[in-house]
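JOB MANIFEST
job_type = single_chain_structure
chain_count = 1
residues = 262
[input]
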Amino acid sequence: MTSKTPTSNVNTPTGLYFLLWVLVWLHVLRGVLTLLILFPFIGTTTKKKHIQRWSKRLMKIFGIQLQVTNPGALEYPSFLLASNHVSWMDIHVINAFKPIRFVAKSEVEKWPIFGWMAKQLGTVFIRRDSSRHARQVVGELANDLKDQSICIFPEGTSTIGKSVQTFKPNLFEGAVLAEVPVCTLAIAYFDRDSGRHSEVPAFVGDMGLLGSMASILKNRRLRVELRFFGPAQATPEQMNDRKWLAQHSQEQIAQFLRQHCK
């Protein structure tokens, strides 16, 4: 992760702030009970509806408004979605629009409660320091992408959201092997009052999960934009080149951030 940490100004009244914490943990408890009691007995479509409703409610508690641009770019039976990464909230923001499986770093699996929930939702965890494990994950992705979509964060870390780091091409190999399109997602957070880019949700430096949650709860005036890009119009050789695919997605996101997150 980058070393810079976001600054914030407290604007949530103290009483409301503590009430919101209660609502957060009640909502998390509801999610745990849903996973334990309902998920073993319901189908995929119903599961996605529960995930979407839960994610929307979480965003409401944290005061985040969702804006989706160009959702038609995802109109494929299955696809690999490559996204920049700003916050732990990214996953819930994406699920509030369109529930999808994720690939996450192995450290997420160790998070109390949230790591367990992510595992129950089918998240694939990857040990980024192990090339052997990465190859194994690529094989799993290629098989799963044949009938379901998966989202990856190829930077391998999170940033403050004003720029995008170099995309690692390894996981793009899964799309090449499965012969499915690669779509791209640019995520950006803004202050609703000023319209300027906000670093409040950034999960960077030495910040812990609870500290990041507190920062957002104290600044409940965020808008998040999901800007989708369809697959590249490219030659067969380029579509089979994981490095080219990674670079193309990275450049699409970089251009969006340069224009909107100054």
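[summary]
Residues 238 and 255 are 20 Å apart (CA to CA).
The chain has a mean pLDDT of 92.
exit_status = 0
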